[in-house]
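Case study.
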Amino acid sequence: MTAELLIFYVLAASALVSALLVVSMKNLARALFLLFVTLFSVAGLFIFCLADFIALTQIMVYVGGVLVLMLFAFMLSNKELLNDLQKGLTGFFALPRWQALIITAGMGFILIHMAINMGSNLPKWVTEAAREGKIFTPTDHTEKHIGLQLMTRYLLPFELISLVLLMALMGAAHLTRKEPKP
Amino acid sequence: MIFYLTYILSGALLFGFIAAFTLFAVYAERKVAGFVQDRLGPMETGKFGTLQTLADILKLIQKEFITPGLADARLFTVAPVVIFMAVFMGFAAMPWAPGLVPSNLNLGLFFVLSVISVEAIGILMAGWGSNNKFSLLGAMRAVAQIISYEIPAGMALISAIMIAQSLNLQEIAVNQGILSKESLRFLGIWEVADTGGFLSWNIFQAPHLLLAYAIYFVASLAECNRAPFDIPEAESELVGGYHTEYGGLRFAFMMLSEYALMFLTAMIGVVLFLGAWNSPLPTIGSFKLAEWTTGTIWGMCWILLKTLSIVGVQIWIRWTLPRLRADQLMSFCWKVLTPLAFLSMAISGIWRVFVMN
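After joint prediction, the assembly is written out as follows.
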């Protein structure tokens, strides 16, 4: 077993175990801190797909931003509210257990179906690209490709996302504004 | 196998360096504080108190591990390790000399910034795990400050990246001296790729980067939680901030990561703006000073000298300026530094397209 394979299995195992613990743990604070382990291991798995930019963005945005915000929200909310949360979710956005079961079963079916269909053969488009030499190596500059693609082929989606973000920013600024005195 | 041994060895060397630097920096800090406040500082242990920090660390290592009774013991134990690992991982991509870098990453700067942002999680862990209101308040203030100041710091760094056209820290370093294969122009006019010296540093290739560097330096002070931005551990109001409950070796790790972060942020500034390991001496006629003072040993000397002088300025500022109030701190970040950082980013774009082509 090579060292790369060993690291891959360690990362995959820690991602799975910590994710399972996050959903099953009763202590909300610890569950949130465990989510950090999950996100970090998934970032490691992204590196194995040669998506180093995505991996680092995941750490920066999810660990350094979203997770910290979640912790802030958790620490600033009062105890009563948290107790309600821990009893179980009810209400409009809550997902009852049977719906969750359907979603997970569906995802599991897709994964197993793909694994059986593909077997040990790579799909045709992968082997063709490999024959033509259109592949990335670990030392390639992936960020240059991402930048070029974002500015040419995916320009419209990119601009649309920036508009959505701008709207969110304006909404947040509006919500925190003080009411003008009558 | 040799391959992995080198990795482990370079990691151990870096750790040794950080520990030695922390010992030296704590001593320097106390001495500078003494001189600024017109007293002597530590004088008893060793000649001029030189063995003082060594005695301190010996005391800290011997201390018992104390976990408060109502604390979340696991989070409390893990927090110092997470904080230190976040800072320590950042050193992996920092260049030390021509051809000498622990890991030559294409996304070097992005890697360093994203692993530093993990520190916030460690601080929250320490604050929550201690189960103490002063710790929790200190942690929340520290994290709010770190997240806010990441924005102007990031924007200032991006304006340097736009000039350097690379995220690889070693490449950025090479493109600021005589080893560069591209044309470098002092203030965008005078070709200095063969002259080298301070003329080819990024801040002189594009003078608005001086503004960007000033923004980055102020923001880096805030990110290290150092005065005048040391509200998170304001002793007079918050007892000790997020590390109120810590003692012994765990507290030593907190201090280690604070000083390591000071060195790391100073080093990022040096690499991006102040010519990294390039010599500040330009070639004058037949005196090829730039060529004579470029090399592995020279490179390490220059980058250490530059970084340590920036750390010196950080220490000097800590003992000179008074502490800012929390609301002043936030309005300074969002209303002064952030717009200025965006301005310097815009100038970078214009400079790159119209002057450097």
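Observations recorded in class. The CA atoms of residues 327 and 333 of chain B lie 10 Å apart. The two ends of chain B are 46 Å apart (CA to CA). We will return to this complex in the next lecture.
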